[in-house]
Design brief:
Helix content is 33%, strand content 22%. It is of the alpha+beta class.
């Protein structure tokens, strides 16, 4: 029997194993579930060991890592597969059609079947597509076509605080030629995607103060510096009328998109107008000379997330406020360093600070961007394998931040391919999360083809 045929025959058993993993409420953000997180890690360790892998739980400053190795032919590529076993909190159980950690199958009118449960998509279903592909190949061939290591962490949903220290300790063990990650979306229902770039992040809090107390606006107004007004004026200097960011030196190091990626994007047009209309908007607000795909994927951004200050309660309070605060973040692209952007931002604020205004800054989320080199040699075989299974594959970017990718690439010396089989409609992080049964099936088949192509 071929590995693909065995994958079809063994799908019910693969589904049963996924259900077992979903039933473990491995919520990393809640200390009450620390035991459940360890139980999920141990379940994965035992499952990998049962396949013949050298598998172990590794202690960290937080929740344990699962590390496992399966041999392949001498000289074959070294593959590191990353996933996470922790999940988001379920939230209000009343908002779920079924208990979140009691997975069920839900047939749909279009012929699809949904696997419903917390973690069904993010990331247990996606993670298990790769594990099951390895299981199938081992059952049919006795050995994988390449050398494979597994790294499953338990803190991805709560900030991955233990990942960087752990990678520093195990970098030699986890050296690889290519990193594979399955924690992303398809392009559409019939087209998987390889995410080739994501933006970094530099999060900042700013606190601006003026007088030593709130002042009566009749007695002091117009003469006294208003903290809210001063903060708004400073923040307004961050962008130019054309949507570009006005911080001196901000774009230093930012590169244009490789032509090969532009051509790939042209084969899968992105409807920017519909993208905005779907959320009630009509006009892009970023750099006006850039298409929406570039505004979202390949250009840095600055967003103000919130402003607070003065009196905003019921009624009226006639004051000149002494304090105002704001939260903002810069999404960064390859060539930008979050610490340098932080320093440039702070210098810009100080330069535009009016008299009698003082400012304090606080670092928030920091993460480096990631962009795959256009000439990465393992991109072509992975793309070809996906085309064998699906007929097509899209290369895409994401405007979000995935700090794990630069962590992994720095530690292992390899580049990362983020391969996604999840639907955008899977309701990850929301009630009634689901994973299509077809995504489980075709994900397993796709990884079989990818591993064989890499080998």
């Amino acid at each position: 029997m071929s590995p693909l045929a065995r994958a079809e025959a063994d799908l019910p058993a693969a589904l049963d194993r996924l259900f077992q993993l979903i039933r473990i409420p491995s919520v990393s953000t809640d200390p009450a579930h620390a035991g459940d997180c360890r139980a999920a890690a141990e379940w994965l360790r035992a499952d990998l060991a049962g396949m013949g892998a050298e598998a172990s739980l590794r202690e960290t400053q937080g929740l344990p890592m699962v590390v496992a190795h399966l041999p392949g032919p001498e000289g074959s590529p070294r593959v590191l597969f990353y996933g996470h076993y922790d999940v988001q909190p379920a939230g209000d159980p009343a908002l779920w059609d079924h208990p979140p950690f009691a997975p069920v199958l839900e047939p749909q009118p279009d012929g699809e079947t949904w696997i419903r449960g917390r973690g069904a998509s993010d990331d247990k279903g996606a993670l298990m597509t790769f594990v099951e592909a390895c299981r199938v190949i081992l059952a049919e061939r006795g050995q994988l076509p390449c050398r494979v290591s597994f790294l499953f962490e338990g803190e991805e949903e709560s900030g991955s605080a233990s990942l960087a220290p752990f990678l520093a300790e195990t970098a030699g063990e986890l050296q690889a030629d290519v990193i594979l990650v399955c924690d992303s979306d398809q392009w559409d229902a019939e087209t998987p995607a390889i995410t080739i770039m994501n933006r970094g992040i530099c999060g900042q809090d700013i606190r601006l103060t003026t007088a030593d107390r709130d002042l009566h606006s009749g007695i002091y107004g117009n003469a006294a510096r208003n903290a809210v007004e001063a903060l708004v004026q400073v923040l307004a200097t961050l962008k130019r009328p054309d949507g570009s960011i006005a911080i001196e030196g901000f774009y230093d190091g930012v590169q244009e998109v490789p032509e090969a990626f532009r051509q790939a994007w042209a084969r899968h047009p992105f409807d920017g107008g519909k993208f905005l209309r779907d959320v009630g908007l009509t006009a892009p607000a970023g750099e006006c000379d850039r298409p929406i795909t570039e505004q979202l994927w390949t250009r840095p951004s600055a967003e103000i997330h919130g402003i607070a200050g003065g009196y905003a309660g019921d009624g009226f309070k006639a004051i000149v406020p002494r304090e105002a605060t704001a939260k903002l973040a810069f999404r960064l692209v390859a060539g930008q360093d979050p610490m340098r952007i932080r320093d440039l931002f702070r210098a810009h604020v100080l330069k535009h600070l009016p008299p009698d205004a003082k400012v304090e800054f606080t670092d928030r989320t920091m993460g480096h961007p990631y962009a795959l080199p256009a000439d990465f040699p393992y991109l072509a075989p992975v793309t070809g394998a996906l085309k064998q299974e699906w007929g097509d594959v899209a290369l895409m970017g994401t405007g979000g931040s995935l700090p794990i990718l630069p962590m992994l690439t720095r530690a292992t010396g390899a580049e990362a391919l983020l391969v996604g089989f999840a639907s955008l409609m899977n309701r990850i992080h929301a009630p009634n999360e689901k994973f299509d049964l077809s995504s489980l099936r075709r994900g397993i088949r796709s990884w079989i083809r990818i591993l064989e192509a890499l080998g």
